[in-house]
Design a protein that fits this description.
Layout (H helix, E strand, L loop, with lengths): L2 H23 L5 H14 L5 H23 L5 H38 L1 H13 L15 H18 L1
Helix pairs in contact: 1-2, 1-6, 2-4, 3-4, 4-6
């Protein structure tokens, strides 16, 4: 297995951990987005370009700044903002639009699923089985958007290698 494949595998594992923790506890631990940011230079080293690197960092910063505004207004959670910014860094300018669109689509589907009483009960039971306290009995108040972010990021980052 090449070093690049190992880095991509680590990316998938960190994203899966973020999705799992957000689903289970509605929290994305800070070491996960931080780990993604620390892994990114190894991913970038496979095809280094100063301009490409600066553009990717710009994407991550832009998403973080917009996300910080949305967080301040109560529209997004802080962990979601950090995870999405780290995913934007990995997606870079070529994948940022797809990342944002897929995140929105997956998040919308997840929110609709949680609004259906059966879906809400299934999610609460799954969280309970994973050891989390059951927070909702009726309509959910929180959507684990980290699940949507992680799914979209994995698709966007891996899609060039699957063609």
């Amino acid at each position: 297995m090449t070093a690049h494949a190992l880095v991509l595998s680590a990316f998938i594992l960190v994203m899966a951990a973020a999705a799992f923790e957000d689903f289970r506890r509605f929290i994305i631990p800070n070491p996960l987005p931080l780990g993604l940011c620390m892994l990114w230079p190894l991913y970038f080293a496979a095809s280094p370009s100063v301009v490409g690197g600066l553009e990717a960092v710009g994407c991550g910063l832009a998403v973080f700044l917009v996300g910080a505004i949305l967080f301040a207004r109560g529209y997004l959670g802080g962990g979601d903002v950090k995870l999405l910014a780290a995913a934007a860094l990995w997606a870079g300018p070529a994948g940022i639009a797809n990342l944002l669109v897929l995140t929105g689509l997956f998040g919308g589907v997840l929110a609709m699923f949680l609004l259906v009483p059966t879906g809400s009960r299934i999610a609460a039971a799954a969280r309970g089985a994973l050891g989390a306290a059951v927070l909702e009995t009726a309509a959910p108040r929180h959507v684990p958007y980290g699940v949507a972010i992680a799914a979209a990021a994995v698709i966007v980052v891996l899609s060039p290698y699957l063609a």
